[in-house]
Design a protein that fits this description.
single chain; 478 residues; alpha/beta; Amidase signature (AS) enzymes; 8-stranded mixed β-sheet; 3-stranded mixed β-sheet; globular; Amidase; EC 3.5.2.12
């Protein structure tokens, strides 16, 4: 065993490899041993490709900033020749790819040792990870009766459990930030089109979905974003250019910022007392750092955005299922997709092309409404979730209607009323692990910034991490 493995973030691991203190093979052996020892209790790491990783090490890893660091890919997107995928679905199980995606190429260029995938819910729908294709739910290392979040829940669980120090994720409605909140990690959704989507997609969910990372430290996210940023050739969108890059941005504190404090949901409903207390605690910390914090809430029509989001994702789900059916040449069979997906297909069948374009227009309007709010504010401070991590089963896909699953009382948008707002607006947003409940469950704090202001947001996150470090806080299983 490598005794320091749990104490090193990915950047420190790479530094130790560069010094010769430890080798890529030794780190990979440690990661595999942890998969064997810790993963059975979590069901987070899947489709392990030890041979592909050994070949990559033997061939010589790229001279990137994470050379030699064990790394896992979310089992949804990030297409790669050497890494088949279930995509969270029995319908798509064992999908193979003819070429690597742009985001995979850039992750590989960091020098990381990629060796498998992490669980995701079918279609990336929902704030939990309980897909039938993996034989059971993915569990939270902080409490195995609770969800690690979704849809990048397997990545959140694997990083929180110390299997890897960082992992790939993606975020179309909070799917990086929700697991970050549930698992006590840092997770950032970058500005729309900051990272590449091609060549398998031109955009995800009308531009709302983007790749990302689950990390223990802000600097690890900065390193990964630095290496992976930039549109791929032919991309339909381009993010505003970076000024100096993420690593340079975190080398010094940001300017003093004007921060809007929202201790309710974006529509004014109360949130769980522990989450509200965490938001108010974060506000006090930011004020102590010299930032200006005042109560304010966007006037944007968040409920209309949520309805539009639900329409767009139903159509995207129907498209992915239709492509799979066409590719294999036979109709959908019983039990091949889960109940929420089947219901999403039924809902999509009631929608016209005009309905879809109207929903996209509503999303664009919401982006303009949020941009107007951020003319007066640099950052919006909220909780990441309206409650602490949910118990397993609450958001499972079985026996549920798709629209009610998203919009019904006590369901997804009541539980996660903040994250999707910034997928719709395209703005950068991050979850920081600043609090825990009395019974030890993580609570994330959510910070969102102006469109294109990723570097300033990451610099603020790094300043907060320095002022209130979270690295020593570990799940009980560690």
């Amino acid at each position: 065993m490598i005794a320091e493995y749990d104490d090193w973030d990915a950047s420190e691991m790479a530094h130790r490899v560069a010094l010769g203190d430890v080798s890529a093979d030794e780190l990979f052996d440690e990661a595999l041993e942890r998969v064997a020892r810790r993963n059975p209790a979590l069901n987070a790491a899947v489709l392990i490709q030890e041979g592909a990783a050994r070949r990559a090490i033997a061939a010589g890893l790229p001279e990137g900033p994470l050379k030699g660091v064990p790394f896992l890919l979310k089992d949804l997107g990030c297409e790669a020749v050497d890494f088949p995928s279930h995509n969270g679905s029995r319908l798509l199980a064992n999908t193979v790819y003819p070429r690597d995606s742009a985001i995979f190429d850039r992750i590989r260029a960091t020098g990381a040792v990629i060796f498998g995938r992490t669980t995701s819910p079918e279609g990336g729908i929902g704030p939990t990870t309980e897909a039938a294709v993996y034989g059971g739910p993915t569990r939270n290392p902080w409490s195995t009766e609770h969800t690690p979040g979704g849809s990048s829940g397997g990545s959140g669980a694997a990083v929180a459990a110390g299997i890897v120090p960082a992992a790939h994720g993606s975020d179309g409605g909070g799917s990086v930030r929700i697991p970050a909140s549930c698992c006590g990690l840092f997770g950032l959704k970058a500005t729309r089109a900051r990272l590449p989507d091609g060549p398998y997609a031109g955009e995800g969910w009308a531009g709302m979905a983007i790749d990302g990372f689950l990390t223990r430290s802000v600097r690890d996210s900065a390193v990964l974003l630095n290496t992976c940023a930039g549109a791929d050739p032919g991309a339909p969108y381009w993010a505003p250019p970076l000024m100096e890059g993420f690593c340079a941005a975190i080398a010094r504190p940001p300017r003093r910022l004007k921060i809007a404090l929202c201790e309710t949901t974006l529509t004014g409903e109360p949130i769980h007392a522990d989450c509200r207390d965490a938001v108010l605690g974060a506000a006090q910390l930011l004020e102590s750092l010299g930032h200006s914090v005042e109560p304010a809430r966007p006037a944007a029509d968040t409920k209309a955005m949520m309805r539009a989001w639900t329409t767009i994702v139903a159509c995207g789900t129907a498209l992915s299922v239709r492509k799979a059916i066409i590719a294999r040449g036979r109709p959908l069979g019983n039990g091949e997709v889960e109940d929420v997906t089947r219901s999403a297909l039924d809902h999509a069948a009631t929608l016209s092309g005009a309905d879809y374009l109207d929903a996209v227009g509503r999303i664009h309007t919401y982006g303009r409404e949020m941009a107007a709010f951020f003319t007066d504010w640099d950052v919006l401070l909220t909780a990441t979730l309206a409650e602490p991590p949910a118990e397993l089963g609450r958001f499972a896909h079985s026996g549920k209607d798709y629209v009610d699953y998203r919009m019904g009382p006590g369901m997804v948008f009541d539980y996660s009323p903040f994250c999707a707002a910034f997928n719709a607006s395209g703005q950068p947003a991050a979850s920081l692990p600043l609090a825990v409940t009395d019974d030890g469950l993580p609570i994330g704090i959510h910070l969102a910034a102006r469109f294109g202001a990723d570097e300033e947001l990451v610099a603020l996150a790094a300043e907060i991490e320095t002022a209130q470090p979270w690295s020593a806080r570990r799940p009980p299983m560690l």
